[in-house]
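Q: I'm teaching a short session on how sequence maps to structure, and I want students to see two examples side by side rather than one. Could you give me a first protein with its sequence written out and its structure tokens following it? Keep the formatting plain so it prints cleanly on a handout.
A: Of course. Example one:
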Amino acid sequence: MNPVEARLKALMLASLDGDAKSYGVLLNDLARHLRFYFMRRLADAHKGDADDLVQETLMALHTRRATYEVDRPFTAWLHAIARYKLIDHFRRNRIRATVPLDDAQELFAQDQSDAAADRMDVERLLQSVPAKSRDLIYRTKIEGQSIAEVAQSTGLSEASVKVGIHRGIKAIAAKLKGGADDDR
């Protein structure tokens, strides 16, 4: 389970047990996550609707939180809600997804095996560092959160976040260097 899924699921489970602070942190984290999700899927002319879609999705999550099955991945459940909100938005506004002919090639299946192998390599390398550093690296380098955002959501100082990331990346670099020496 990736660190983001684990963290969000833990926050959701705590909130289902009545932890209001965890619920607040969850909603705050989800707002950023969902904004990014919708911005990637909306055409430039409709990017202004992203915040409304975030709010609609958070409201749906709030009203349907009792339906979450705790043995299932949380982010899959969340993305299903977000996807339905996006589809409703497209229908309500009579928006049809169109692609210029020059970009139609992207619609066809492409070999993703290299990308999948790269993701597996990154996951394997991240597993070799302590959980704290792994989470910090994942949030900043893969999810694109800022140091300040990560510091605020974890309760760490910005300096501690930077140190944690630096130590994790240094450990990964040492592992890569050691792996390169082993190949000789």
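Q: Perfect. Now a second example for contrast.
A: Example two:
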Amino acid sequence: MGLDFSIIPDYLDIILLGVAWTIGITLAAAALSFAGGIVFAVIALYAPWIIRQPFRLVEFVFMGTPLLLQLFLIYFGLVQIGIDLPAFVAGIIGLGLHFAVYNSELIQTSILAVDRGQMEAARTLGLSRGQALRKVVIPQAVRAVVPPIGNNMIALLKDSALVSVIGVSELTLSAQRAIGKTYRPFEFYILAAAFYYVINLCMEWVQRKIERRISISR
């Protein structure tokens, strides 16, 4: 049985819906991972010991276990304690927190690389420690980690396929549904791969634009 790409237009609406879900969950999880990475970095570096230690445990769990297991725990496990999240929300939280931990490591390193004189100068101008972090130190640290965080976001896009296991109709699951109706796996998996590649290229283009703007503003 040869390849037959002529069947694709009949199921293109299913695939495009999956593309929309993939983009939506990637953008939402990316925003959560970026904001969470900053919060986690500040906690790890500046929070009291009694707050830092539980955070270290959470960090170990998210870095030391598979993302797939984390999605199962969030979607299926939380139900047992009365927290019933929609699959889409569970996917965003799972992906967002998983990559927030990795972003936190990058941001911590970047914060420590900022000249201590920046903090001291801000304090002498009357800013509190929190204000100095928010207005002086963290903006400089974030600018320095845009490239590696951008790479994490591209990895997040690829890992978004895992949310299909909890029922989110993203691109991979949509392709599988089309395959279930046509028994044509090769054609639809190639189409899904092409869409992932195009989204990936768009994300790389945005990342380069952001990096260029940052380099000009320095």
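Q: What should students look for in example two?
A: Point them to this: The chain has nine helices and no strands. Also worth mentioning: Residues 210 and 216 are 10 Å apart (CA to CA).
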